[in-house]
Description:
extended; alpha+beta; 9 helices; four-stranded mixed β-sheet
Amino acid sequence: xxxxxxxxxxxxxxxxxxxxxxxxxxxxxxxxxxxxxxxxxxxxxxxxxxxxxxxxxxxxxxxxxxxxxxxxxxxxxxxxxxxxxxxxxxxxxxxxxxxxxxxxxxxxxxxxxxxxxxxxxxxxxxxxxxxxxxxxxxxxxxxxxxxxxxxxxxxxxxxxxxxxxxxxxxxxxxxxxxxxxxxxxxxxxxxxxxxxxxxxxxxxxxxxxxxxxxxxxxxxxxxxxx
Length: 226
């Protein structure tokens, strides 16, 4: 029953949140899993101009501060990360399981371990089609979510395991991650950290026969293996 007859835009010098009380240090300590003392030491080293942003929008400040601290933690951990080999192994049943997928995402193929492969994007669909058509490929698999690498920033699931015809390329086996962009600047920070962890993980088990790489197309993959 109401209609706008007239409007005016006014820049406010104060935030509507500025009168709400927050436990700044406690909240960020909980979000970052650090002690209150550590968070206090961090805030002692930031400029007054930056800290004044807290008064303007406390919730945004807490969210961004927590994100930046967690990213810095991840960088520190990843820089000192190493993996040790264990005797544990995945069985074929663990890795090559049949999952339930939306039928619209299933692609009928010939060289996959199953007659159909589930793709999550146009890039994955094109990649699977190129794998299926390539003479150099013997068999490939879209790895299930149960096959993951533990990292300090969460579980990481590579996309593909690929076996090439022996003698056709330099590397016989390949574990690939397909991304729409090859630029690390365009990958999300946490995803970038997980990829770096995966590189370190596979460096423990890889050889001239087994490699891991991030690719954006089948052509990029072939450029690497050749």
